[in-house]
Specification:
The complex is a heterodimer of chains A (217) and B (305). Chain A has one domain (2-196). With 217 residues, chain A is mostly helical. Chain A has nine helices and no strands. The two termini of chain A are 38 Å apart. Classes of the chains: A mainly alpha (217), B alpha+beta (305). At the A-B interface, helix 4 of A face loops of B.
Chain lengths: 217, 305
């Protein structure tokens, strides 16, 4: 009971945290500086940065859980991921509806001809099936394929970072930071993956009488 | 629009010391452009008056001074307003050097003295696809150039921003190769529209807008407008302007506003006027074709972007 309540509290906190960026931007727009001199550009930047932050946060949950042994973390991964999807959707809608104001010919031309928009759009599109299959029913239905499908997040986040690099004119500090986080998170996964593969390989090698290194874990 | 017939310390320099415009043109052997330029010079005041159209509402002073690309003070749009407080724009000197008969280092007031003060209202189109309408105050660059007396070898003028990392926090990081350098072909520099600005809305330039002296070329993308100028150099070689050095496939020397030549990463067909919601179409040469198109006749503008 106590444990369940703690998880519920944790989740409630996360819902609040998840909507904080939206509350903050609304506050700035209606009560603050109105998002500055160029509100449309500011809102776009905000949506992109927020979604990328949540996406990287979602990617860091599994490594964090395995490193800390805090297994409850896994229970909020979906929520973090869905917040990432929520903000990238806003980012996309701001671009379509406010920045371009539904100028479809320009929108289609941009998607087709501007590499950074093409890449950003792909990053968004890849997340759609991931978000749609995040329910328990889909997890059951897809079985092992669910895990494979949800690895699209690895690709999507990298594309999002490339998109970020390509819209940045000269000051690459933030995209570099995002890329560094991504590389760290993926390296941890690669190491685990290699380890999980190397065990059977080592066992085979020993059987054939080759010099294995059984002492090294 | 009107031009006040005020002059910086008028009478201090005998007019005989200043080369007449026609003589200058002869010396420059600008035969191809000469006639056009001289003709334009005569028409200048009336043409200048026609550059502000009715739909161009002036951008509020607050916006002009709080949405700036001046990486010397940081890369955020509000950074220049926030982090330029330590910058000391006076006293100021400008060094004139290179292919000219009248080089030297001049105190800013002497540098400007005697030149007619103009107050044009220009559209400013940033390469990032936003734009403003700015009432400038300054002097025509051609007046300054005529006093410097470029030699026959001078084909370009290069201008350099001050290098002061102690007062310009952005220069402490190598975001761009400092100091910032920009340049114009001499006929562009001599164009009636080209000014060295000292003020906005009748007030002296604030640090974030390039105090105390900056270039304004309204038919070109904003990054051509080199700020806090300390050096003018006349040269026969095309200057290597900073953004072209940074990303030669994205930014060229000419940087003329052109809706048909896209930036490799984004479209230049439309722009967002600061204060407006919908994007508006971008005009060729930012709408100043009448005054500047003749300078690029026969040039492939997709190549010379």
């Amino acid at each position: 009971m106590v444990l369940k309540r703690r998880i519920r509290l944790f989740k409630t906190g996360l819902w609040i945290l998840g909507f904080t960026p939206l509350a903050w931007v609304c506050h700035r727009f209606f009560l603050g500086d109105g998002l500055g001199v160029n509100p449309v550009a500011e809102a776009q930047l905000w949506g992109g940065l927020t979604s990328l932050t949540f996406l990287l946060a979602a990617l860091s949950i599994t490594p964090l859980r395995r490193l800390t042994g805090w297994n409850d973390l896994q229970k909020v991964r979906r929520l973090v991921g869905l917040f990432a999807f929520f903000y990238v959707t806003l980012h996309f809608l701001i671009w379509i509806g406010i920045d371009q104001f539904f100028a479809w010919s320009y929108i289609l031309e941009d998607i087709a001809e501007r590499p950074y928009i093409m890449v950003g759009f792909t990053a968004f599109a890849l997340l759609i099936p991931v978000a749609m299959t995040s329910t328990k029913g889909w997890i059951r239905r897809l079985g092992k394929r669910w895990v494979t499908l949800h690895r699209l997040v690895y690709v999507s986040s990298l594309l999002g970072i490339i998109h970020f690099f390509w819209i940045t004119k000269a000051d690459d500090r933030w995209p570099i930071l995002a890329l560094m986080v991504w590389v760290v998170l993926m390296s941890i996964r690669s190491v685990w993956w290699l380890k999980s593969r190397s065990h059977p390989a080592r066992a085979r090698g020993m059987k054939k009488g080759l010099s294995g290194t059984p002492g090294r874990a | 629009m009107f031009i006040r017939k005020r002059r910086f310390g008028e009478g201090d320099i005998p007019s005989s010391e200043i080369t007449p415009y026609e003589l200058y043109l002869d010396r420059r052997r600008f035969l191809a452009h000469g006639a056009t330029l001289a003709g334009v010079a005569v028409l200048a005041p009336s043409v200048l008056g026609a550059t502000e159209t009715e739909e161009d509402e002036r951008t509020p002073y607050e916006d002009i001074t709080h949405y700036n690309n001046y990486y010397e003070f940081g890369t955020g749009k509000e950074d220049p307003a926030k982090y330029s407080g330590d910058f000391v724009p006076r006293p100021w000197t400008v060094t004139v050097e290179g292919e000219c008969s009248n080089p030297g280092t001049f105190a800013l007031d002497d540098f400007l003295k005697g030149h007619e003060i103009v107050e044009p209202v220009y559209r400013m189109r940033c390469v990032e696809a936003w734009s403003m309408v700015i009432p400038w105050r300054g002097v025509r660059l051609r007046d300054v150039i005529m006093r410097a007396q470029p030699t026959g070898k001078a084909e370009f003028v290069e201008m350099t921003t001050v290098l002061r990392p102690a007062q310009m926090p952005g220069q402490r990081r190598r975001i761009l190769p400092w100091p910032y350098v920009e340049g114009l072909r001499l006929d562009e520099a001599m164009n009636e529209l080209t000014i060295l600005a000292t003020g906005i809305y009748g007030k002296d330039l604030l640090n974030q807008n390039g105090a105390p002296l900056r270039l304004v070329t309204p038919w070109k993308y904003g990054f051509k407008g080199v700020k806090s100028i300390v050096k003018m150099r006349f040269t026969s070689d095309m200057p290597e302007n900073t953004w072209q050095v940074m990303a030669p496939n994205e930014y060229g020397f000419y940087a003329n506003v052109n809706p048909e030549v896209d930036h490799p990463r984004w479209s230049q067909a439309r722009e967002r006027r600061i204060g407006e919601f919908r994007r508006r179409p971008t005009l060729m040469f930012n709408g100043y074709g009448e005054q500047v198109a003749h300078m690029y006749r026969g040039m492939d503008l997709t190549k010379w972007y």
